Amino acid sequence: MAKKAKNRKELLKKPDEFLTFSGKLLATIIKYKVYAVSGLILLLAVVMLISGINYMGNRAENQAFVLLEKGMADYDRILADDGPEKAYQVAKNQFQPLFEEYAQKDAGRLARIVYAGMAYDAGDFDTAITLYQGALDDIGAYPGLKPFILGGLGRTYLAQKAYASAARQFETIIQGSDPVLKEDAYLNLGLIYDRMGKTEKRSEILSRFIAEYPDSTFVGMVKEKLANS
């Protein structure tokens, strides 16, 4: 056991600190409506972050992650007492240095996604869309998060009743090779087509959902919806 721990530390110089930062970061991204996912997807996303973000030994990156974690913790505290709008206003001052001073660092890029979720919760949809779009433009830094960003962007357009724009985001998720959030994208597309009055496309997408996810907990609800159409 001791030898195994030693080898791990040789590989990841400060593993406990690294895993704590990565785990908290991923959990917060999901919490702030970039998207809720299953335990398996969450595990894969954590692995992606651990393998893709290397801030150990990088002083500026480390400082940026500290600021990000503090901003998230303060947001949580204010959110519990005063709600999302007040928490969002306070977070704006704390996240600004991350956007300005650490824009090219992993923490700065990820702060943009986290803050987009905060903007969504506060009803500032225009800011959320701008931030999500910026994250897509910078997707090369973390391609594994593309479905999360597209999902957040799709939900924001949906909240604005910009149904065509929302549909494009979820269609992109479905057409992609990454299985992350595809099940959710099918359901959102079904809802969007229903609201657009495109009943044939709604029935088509929901039928594909049933075929591809026969064990989903939502299959019964979807079948009932199709039967009553």
TrEMBL record:
Residues in coiled coil: none
InterPro entries, per the entry: SecYEG/CpoB_TPR (IPR018704), TPR-like_helical_dom_sf (IPR011990), TPR_rpt (IPR019734)
Keyword annotations from UniProtKB, A to Z: Membrane, TPR repeat, Transmembrane, Transmembrane helix
Recorded superkingdom: Bacteria
Keyword Transmembrane: yes
Ranges for domain Ancillary SecYEG translocon subunit/Cell division coordinator CpoB TPR: 33-175
Protein name (record): Tetratricopeptide repeat-containing protein
Native organism: Desulfococcus multivorans DSM 2059
